[in-house]
Amino acid sequence: FTPKTLAGRRVLVTAGPTFEAIDPVRGITNLSSGKMGFAIARAAREAGADVTLVAGPVHVPTPRGVQRVNVQSAQEMLAAVQRNVQAASVFIATAAVADWRPASQSSQKIKKDGSGQTPSLEFVENPDILATVAKSSHALQGDLFCVGFAAESHDLLAHATAKRVRKGVPLLVGNIGPATFGQDDNALLLVDAQGHRELPRASKRVLAQQLMGEIAARLPPLGS
Ligand code: C5P
């Protein structure tokens, strides 16, 4: 039995990596299984929310009752988020978005020419989806509760605290190491304006349920 703490709310979640094409057969991406984001979408649905899940390329089944939008690149992810965020009251950014994309894409496969010369790639910065959404008027008016994630290799509390302020979000969730890529369990560090607390190691499913409770408790009452 799951308490319907998110009934009447619309929750938008990003999950998985993004894939930034170099040419039709190659690209760069981040390590991310999508499992945490999918577990969050499932938990939000089970807590009674209407859920839209914008997913990069992952091999995870869509949770029952969740509306899924598949994307590849960060720019596509931003566009899909912007199409869906106006209707949402909670935005949870779990995606591991590539920070950079190749400055240009070759429409044809880049060929080895046998000379031993290697291509060099130039990069441009991708949009920061979370920061963009967090400073939209919808969020600034208090109608959208934004949650960010942080995966750090060291000094998680300091980085998560600084990241929360930099991104302009009320709640930042740190993945407590070691790296959890692809694993079924995790431990989380929750950082908000009041301070921080830990959700001890558990399955991503249980952590997602606990996180939904934490988010629901921070939302303004419905109809306010
Ligand atoms: O800056 P960093 O990538 O560590 O921030 C992580 C948080 O920001 C995550 O919530 C991630 O989904 C979000 N993010 C984003 N768009 C980016 C980079 C990160 O939404 N381009």
UniProtKB/TrEMBL annotation:
GO biological-process terms attached to the record: coenzyme A biosynthetic process; pantothenate catabolic process
Domain DNA/pantothenate metabolism flavoprotein C-terminal: 6-217
Keyword Manganese among record annotations: no
EC number: 4.1.1.36, 6.3.2.5
Cofactor note: Binds 1 FMN per subunit.
Molecular functions (GO terms): FMN binding; metal ion binding; phosphopantothenate--cysteine ligase activity; phosphopantothenoylcysteine decarboxylase activity
GO cellular component, one term: phosphopantothenoylcysteine decarboxylase complex
Metabolic or biological pathway: Cofactor biosynthesis; coenzyme A biosynthesis; CoA from (R)-pantothenate: step 2/5; Cofactor biosynthesis; coenzyme A biosynthesis; CoA from (R)-pantothenate: step 3/5
Cofactor: FMN; Mg(2+)
Reaction(s) this enzyme catalyzes, per UniProt: (R)-4'-phosphopantothenate + L-cysteine + CTP = N-[(R)-4-phosphopantothenoyl]-L-cysteine + CMP + diphosphate + H(+); N-[(R)-4-phosphopantothenoyl]-L-cysteine + H(+) = (R)-4'-phosphopantetheine + CO2
Keywords: Decarboxylase, Flavoprotein, FMN, Ligase, Lyase, Magnesium, Metal-binding, Multifunctional enzyme
Protein residues bound to CTP: 99, 109, 127-130, 149, 163, 167
Region Phosphopantothenate--cysteine ligase, residue ranges: 11-224
Family per record: In the C-terminal section; belongs to the PPC synthetase family.
Summary of the function given for this chain in its UniProt record: Catalyzes two sequential steps in the biosynthesis of coenzyme A. In the first step cysteine is conjugated to 4'-phosphopantothenate to form 4-phosphopantothenoylcysteine. In the second step the latter compound is decarboxylated to form 4'-phosphopantotheine. Catalyzes two steps in the biosynthesis of coenzyme A. In the first step cysteine is conjugated to 4'-phosphopantothenate to form 4-phosphopantothenoylcysteine, in the latter compound is decarboxylated to form 4'-phosphopantotheine.
Entry protein name: Coenzyme A biosynthesis bifunctional protein CoaBC
Lineage, uppermost ranks: Bacteria, Pseudomonadati, Pseudomonadota, Betaproteobacteria, Burkholderiales
